[in-house]
Design goal:
- This protein has 193 residues and is mainly alpha-helical.
- The termini are far apart.
- The chain has helices at residues 5-17, 23-43, 46-62, 73-94, 118-138, 142-153, 158-165, 169-186, 188-192.
- It has nine helices and no strands.
- The protein has two domains: 5-94, RNA polymerase sigma factor, region 2, helix turn helix motif (Rna Polymerase Sigma Factor, Chain: A, Orthogonal Bundle), CATH 1.10.1740.10; 112-192, Arc Repressor Mutant, subunit A (Orthogonal Bundle).
- It is globular.
Length: 193
């Protein structure tokens, strides 16, 4: 019988605690991509997402002596990443910057989809729609964004999200309900077409 990923992670954490530092590589191999994707969706900056994922694994290593497999490993790991994400957002509030990418193109320019051949226009429209949804999710209040990303993209249950977020299962349900309402409103134009 094959061990579940959670059993493999718990086994790796035990080996890491017992001095087998290579067990961290096993954990990183299993979780790096998924964790970085979660952080990238939350923050929208690949460099920062990779840095936060690496810092998450640093924290896993630092916590190896205290780790107790009381719940699912994924919940524990995403809780660490989410706390680092929250710290990063607090840091950004204290140190605001303006991105060169935030400068808007001229308003008189026709949409790019009208300036390209039909096949390219479809690709551009799909990419634009994807970007708009991503931007709408990123613009959600942090607690709602976190719940949506963990539920929709990481397939965590309401109970797991509650553990990650440090709130009740009912609070998670409320956050998801409100986030969906906000997204429906923001994306109304795209949902109608």
């Amino acid at each position: 019988m094959n061990a579940s990923p959670d059993d493999s992670d718990i086994s790796a954490m035990r080996r890491l605690r017992d001095g087998d530092d290579l067990a961290l590589n096993e954990i990183m191999d299993r979780w790096q991509r998924r964790l970085t994707s979660y952080l990238l969706r939350a923050i929208g900056n690949e460099t920062v997402a990779v840095d936060l994922a690496q810092e998450t694994f640093v924290r896993v290593y630092q916590s190896r002596e205290k780790y107790q497999p009381r719940g699912e490993f994924s919940t524990w790991l995403f809780a660490i990443a989410t706390n680092l994400l929250r710290q990063h957002f607090r840091w950004l509030k204290r140190h605001p910057t303006v991105s060169m990418d935030s400068v808007e193109p001229g308003r008189d320019d026709p949409p790019l989809s009208e300036r390209l051949p039909a096949e390219d226009a479809n690709t551009v429209e799909r990419d634009e729609r994807s970007r708009i949804v991503k931007d709408a999710v990123t613009a959600l209040p942090p607690d709602m964004r976190e719940a949506v990303l963990l539920f929709e993209y990481e397939d965590l249950s309401h109970e797991q999200i509650a553990k990650v977020a440090g709130c009740s299962k009912k609070a998670v349900e409320t956050r998801l309900y409100r986030a969906r309402a906000l997204l429906r409103e923001k994306l109304r134009h795209w949902l109608a077409s």
